[in-house]
Design goal:
By secondary structure, this protein is an alpha+beta fold. The protein has helices at about 1-25, 55-75, 100-105, 110, and strands spanning about 30-35, 45-50, 80, 85-90, 95-100, 115-120. A hairpin with a 3-residue loop joins β4 (about 85-90) and β5 (about 95-100).
Length: about 120
Amino acid sequence: MKQQSKELRDNTQTLLATIIEAIKNKKGENIIALDLNNIDEAVAKYFVVCDAQTHIQTAAIVRSIVDDVLEGVQEKPYHIEESNVWSIIDYADIVVHVFKTEERKFYDLEGAWMDASRKEYA
């Protein structure tokens, strides 16, 4: 059982790293991973949040994530919800939120999950 738990943790970390690199490749900004593992009410282990200047860039980031994760980790998203201002990619353990900059400030997911530990990526 311990081996299976370690493998799941390693797979989640590989998925997280792949998502972060895919965002960086499309010049996503203000990339933050919120670690929700210690929050009982959380629906995932991590939220990854980033923003982009235009809806074209948000769509490019979403496509980059989906393609890179499928190629590198062989995992398909459980669900994708796309709009011009906020897109979500749900991988069960990790939910990715790609915002246009103004909407990210308005919805303030980081504030809503302020109990989560956070890691910022440059």
